[in-house]
Specification:
By secondary structure, the protein is of the alpha+beta class. It is 34% helix and 29% strand. The strands form two sheets. It has a three-stranded antiparallel beta sheet.
Length: 112
């Protein structure tokens, strides 16, 4: 298997649904799985640069164009950025309002 982000990040994210079918080298995660992955990123000191939201309708996955991002602040330490970026991701995922009847998938972009 080819490494997409890093061996550790891929190991965490590949618990989700592969997005290869839509030409994306990443995985879509349920809300619960995405939140668990953030715990693991924190444990392994992996920052989250942002993410996207996909919907799966009748097995067809597509982006719904919702997303978030987190830029490093000027002078921010690696440790502080890791904690803050994961909190930004957690807040977005926890507060995301699921209005659709489709399955929602969160696509996390880790820092490599």
């Amino acid at each position: 298997m080819n490494v997409v982000w890093s061996k550790k990040a891929d190991e965490i994210l590949n618990k989700g649904i592969s997005l290869d079918s839509i030409g994306v080298k990443n995985w879509g995660l349920s809300r619960e799985a995405a939140l668990k992955s953030l715990d693991q990123f924190l444990y392994y000191n992996i920052a989250v640069l942002g993410g996207d939201v996909c919907e799966s309708e009748n097995g067809v996955i597509k982006y719904n164009y919702d997303n978030w991002y987190c830029d490093r602040n000027l002078g921010e330490s690696d440790a502080d950025f890791i904690v803050r970026s994961i909190q930004v991701a957690r807040d977005y995922i926890e507060k995301y309002n699921v209005l659709s009847t489709n399955q929602i998938l969160f696509v996390i972009v880790p820092e490599t």
